[in-house]
Design goal:
mainly alpha, Formate dehydrogenase/DMSO reductase fold, 2 domains, 57% helix
Length: 620
C-alpha cells in the first residue's frame, strides 16, 4: 500500500468519527454534547474553525496579489493550490460555524437582516462573498477537465478568465476587511481577554499576522503535496515566499511588542504566571523562531529550515488565535472550559473531509505547475508482482479491494465513535431546569437565581427615582412608571386586575416573593405564563362558557385574542401578537429588560462601563 492510500484510509476514519459526532451534536444540542457554558459561549469551534481557519486560508489573497498585482509570474505554479486551499478553508469555516450555532438553520439571516453597525455582520458578508470569489477563481481549473469540453462550458471558462483580475481585486479587498474585523470582534471584551492578547489595534495585528500565515500555509501545503505525490519541490520558489514572510513576521513582532510597551503591560510577560508562559511560548514559535530561520539565507534555502519555519508559523499562529479567543479569556470561578472529544472530533472531521476533497482535485485536475512534476513511486524489491502473465491473475489492489477495505474501516470507526459518545449526550436534557430562587435584600437586591455566586446587584430605590423623574413626560402616573419593568402583578400576591405600584412591588419583595419569578420561573428555559384554569374562573360568565370571550375559533393558543385586549397594563411585549404565552427564561427576561436601557444611558453619559456585564454582576 502506498502512502497516498494509507493517508486516505486514515482520513476516512477521521471523517466517519466526525460525522457521528456531528449527528449527535445536532440531534442532542450543544448543552448535552459540548463543554460550552454561559461563561464560554465561544469555544474551540469558533477559536479554531473560524478565527484561526480564516487566517489559515489567507494564502489565497496573498498569492493572488503576488501574481496578479505585483506580476511575480514565477509563483503562478503554486497559485491554484493556494486558491483551492483557501476555498476549502473557507468552506471549513462555514461548516464549523454551523456546528457552533445554537440555531444553525438561521445562518442565512444576515443576508436579509442587515445590522450594519455589527462587526460580525460585516465578517459574515465578507466570508460569504469571498468564498464565492474563491470558487470563481478556482472554476477554470475545473472547467479545463475533459468532462467539460463542451461549447457552453468553454464559453463560461473564457468569461471567467476575463473576469480574473476584477475577482482578484475584489477578493483582496474582502480579505483585508474580514481578516482585520476578526480582531475587532474581540474589542468588545476588554475586561475578559488577557492584557497580553487584548489590544486596541487587534484588527491591525490580525491582518498582518494573516499575511505572514498565508505565505507559510502555502509553503506547508506544498510540502504536504510533495510528500503525498512525491513532487519535486522547487526550493528557489518557496525560498522567495519565505523571504517575504520573514519581513512580515518581523513587522508583526515589532508592532505587537511595541504595543505592549506603549500600554505598559510588557512586564506581565515575565511575571511567571501561566499566561506569561503561554505568551512567551506562543510568540516564540509563531513569530520569533520562524523569523530568524527565514532571515538566514542558508536556512531559508534548505528543505529542513523552510519546512520547520512554515510548520512553526502555522502552528504558532493557530495557538495565537486560540489564546486570544478562548484560552486567555477570563472566566468566573467554577466556569472553566476545555473542549470534550466531540468538539475535537467534529473539527478534525471537517479538516479531514476537506483534505480528501483536496486530494481528489489534485488527482483529477491540472492543479500543479510543470515545475512540480510527478515522480512515480518505486515499488519495493520485496513486493509481490502486480500481474502473473501465465495465470493471468492480477495481484495489485483493485478498485473493489479499496472500497471493501475502506468500508470495513468506516464500520469499525462508526462503532468506536458511537461507543465513545458521552453518556449525557443520550440521557441529559438539552438545558436542565434551574428554578429561580428569591432575591435577597430590599432596597439593594442581590439577584443570584441559580446560586452560581455571580450576584447581580440592583438598587430598586435608585432606579425608581431615576424613572420617577420622567413622570409627566414619558410616564403619566406612578403605575405607568412601574409597569415598564413589572408588566404583570403576581396573581398569588395581588389577585386579578390588581394595580401595580412601587409600594405593592416593594411589599412583594419584602415578603420574599419576586413578581418577576412568578412567570419567569426557570433560569434558562421558557415557561408557560398562562393559567388557563384561573381564566376560566375569572372571565365571566365562568367555566367553559367563558371560552368564547377569548377564543375566536378553535380551542388553541393560535385562536386566542391578544392578552393586551383585557390586560391593558401589561407593558413590554403586550401589544398584539408580539406577546408570547410562554414567558422567556429569567436570564433572558432580565437581560432583555436591562441591557437596552443601560446601553442607552451609557451613550448619554459617555460611560462605557454602564453597558458592561461588570456593572451588575459581581463574583463573590
Amino acid at each position: 500500500m502506498n502512502r497516498r492510500n494509507l493517508l486516505k484510509d486514515m482520513l476516512w476514519i477521521l471523517v466517519t468519527v466526525g460525522v457521528v459526532a456531528g449527528l449527535v451534536r445536532f440531534a442532542r444540542g450543544l448543552g448535552a454534547t459540548t463543554n460550552l457554558n454561559d461563561a464560554t459561549p465561544w469555544g474551540f469551534w469558533i477559536g479554531f474553525d473560524v478565527i484561526a481557519g480564516v487566517a489559515l486560508a489567507a494564502g489565497g489573497f496573498t498569492l493572488a496579489a503576488t501574481v496578479y498585482v505585483f506580476h511575480l509570474e514565477k509563483y503562478r505554479p503554486v497559485l491554484r493550490p493556494a486558491i483551492l486551499t483557501a476555498f476549502l478553508g473557507y468552506v471549513a469555516v462555514i461548516v464549523g460555524l454551523i456546528a457552533d450555532l445554537g440555531l444553525p438553520w438561521n445562518i442565512w439571516r444576515p443576508v436579509v437582516n442587515w445590522q450594519h453597525h455589527s462587526v460580525l455582520f460585516e465578517v459574515a458578508w465578507c466570508v460569504m462573498l469571498y468564498t464565492t470569489v474563491l470558487g470563481l477563481e478556482f472554476l477554470p481549473a475545473a472547467l479545463e477537465h475533459p468532462l467539460f469540453n463542451r461549447p457552453v462550458f468553454q464559453t463560461v471558462l473564457r468569461w471567467v478568465k476575463r473576469l480574473t483580475l476584477p475577482l482578484v481585486v475584489i477578493g483582496i479587498a474582502l480579505s483585508t476587511l474580514h481578516q482585520s474585523s476578526l480582531g475587532s470582534l474581540l474589542l468588545i471584551m476588554p475586561f475578559r481577554v488577557h492584557e497580553l492578547w487584548y489590544s486596541p489595534i487587534l484588527p491591525v495585528l490580525f491582518f498582518v499576522s494573516a499575511a505572514a500565515l498565508g505565505l507559510m500555509m502555502v509553503t506547508l501545503e506544498s510540502f504536504f503535496s510533495a510528500f503525498v505525490y512525491r513532487h519535486q519541490i522547487k526550493i528557489e520558489l518557496f525560498s522567495g515566499l519565505g523571504k517575504a514572510a520573514a519581513v512580515v513576521l518581523w513587522l508583526f513582532l515589532a508592532i505587537r511588542v511595541g504595543d505592549l510597551v506603549l500600554r505598559g503591560v510588557l512586564p506581565g510577560a515575565l511575571d511567571g504566571s501561566w499566561q506569561s508562559v503561554l505568551f512567551l511560548v506562543e510568540i516564540s514559535i509563531s513569530t520569533l523562531i520562524p523569523a530568524i530561520l527565514l532571515s538566514i539565507p542558508a536556512s531559508r534555502k534548505s528543505l529542513a529550515g523552510l519546512g520547520t519555519a512554515s510548520f512553526l508559523t502555522v502552528f504558532g499562529m493557530i495557538l495565537h488565535r486560540l489564546s486570544a479567543s478562548v484560552i486567555a479569556v477570563e472566566r468566573p470561578v467554577g466556569a472553566s472550559y476545555f473542549p470534550n472529544w466531540v468538539e475535537f472530533a467534529i473539527s478534525i472531521g471537517i479538516v479531514s473531509g476537506l483534505a480528501l476533497v483536496f486530494l481528489f482535485f489534485a488527482e483529477n485536475l491540472k492543479l500543479f505547475g510543470p515545475e512540480t512534476m510527478h515522480a512515480e513511486e518505486k515499488p519495493s524489491p520485496y513486493a509481490k508482482p502486480q500481474f502473473d502473465p501465465i495465470t493471468k491473475v492480477r495481484f495489485c489492489e483493485t478498485l473493489w479491494d479499496t472500497v471493501g477495505r475502506r468500508t470495513l474501516l468506516v464500520v469499525v470507526a462508526l462503532a468506536l465513535a458511537i461507543t465513545l459518545i458521552p453518556e449525557r449526550a443520550w440521557t441529559a436534557d438539552q438545558t436542565p431546569a434551574v428554578p429561580v430562587m428569591p432575591v435577597q435584600g430590599l432596597n439593594v437586591l442581590r439577584i443570584d437565581g441559580n446560586r452560581a455566586g455571580a450576584f447581580a446587584y440592583f438598587s430598586h430605590k435608585s432606579h425608581e427615582e431615576r424613572q420617577g423623574k420622567l413622570i409627566g413626560t414619558t410616564y403619566a402616573t406612578e403605575q405607568d412608571m412601574c409597569v415598564r419593568c413589572h408588566h404583570l402583578s403576581d396573581w398569588e400576591m395581588s389577585g386579578a386586575g390588581a394595580t401595580v405600584t412601587s409600594q405593592s412591588i416593594r411589599a412583594e419583595v419584602a415578603g420574599g416573593l419576586s413578581s418577576c419569578r412568578g412567570c419567569h420561573s426557570d433560569m434558562y428555559n421558557p415557561t408557560s405564563a398562562f393559567d388557563h384554569d384561573l381564566h376560566l374562573t375569572l372571565v365571566q360568565p365562568g367555566g367553559n362558557q367563558s371560552c368564547a370571550q377569548c377564543h375566536t375559533g378553535g380551542h388553541s393558543a393560535s385562536t386566542a385574542v391578544p392578552c393586551a385586549t383585557c390586560h391593558t397594563n401589561m407593558g413590554p411585549g403586550a401589544d398584539g401578537k408580539a406577546f408570547s404565552y410562554f414567558a422567556p427564561s429569567y436570564v433572558d427576561a432580565m437581560h432583555g429588560l436591562c441591557i437596552d436601557c443601560h446601553e442607552t444611558e451609557s451613550q448619554k453619559t459617555s460611560n462605557p462601563l454602564l453597558g458592561s456585564c461588570v456593572t451588575c454582576h459581581h463574583q463573590e
